[in-house]
Design goal:
A two-stranded antiparallel sheet has the order 1-2. The chain has 73 residues and is mainly α. It has 4 helices and 2 strands; from the N terminus they run ααββαα.
């Protein structure tokens, strides 16, 4: 698959190891960028990569966690 190909919801679900229903919910909540092709919804591979990057959670140490919890309280 080349980068200029658009992905279907099923293909995005396979890449995310999720269900097509989850992908439809992402679209409904506008949490992932998509392209309308008539009535169809398609996704650019870069949009899927951006969604993954935006939702990446990086680990922190206990000291950083304590500091974060103190600041937010």
């Amino acid at each position: 698959m080349t980068d200029d190909e658009l992905l279907t919801a099923d293909e995005v679900a396979a890449r995310l190891k999720a269900t097509p229903r989850f992908v439809r919910r992402l679209v409904a909540e506008r949490r992932i960028e998509y392209v309308k092709v008539g009535r169809l919804v398609r996704f650019e591979p870069s949009a899927v990569a951006d969604y993954i990057d935006q939702n990446r959670v990086v680990p922190i140490s206990r000291a950083q966690l304590r500091r974060y919890l103190r600041e937010s309280a």
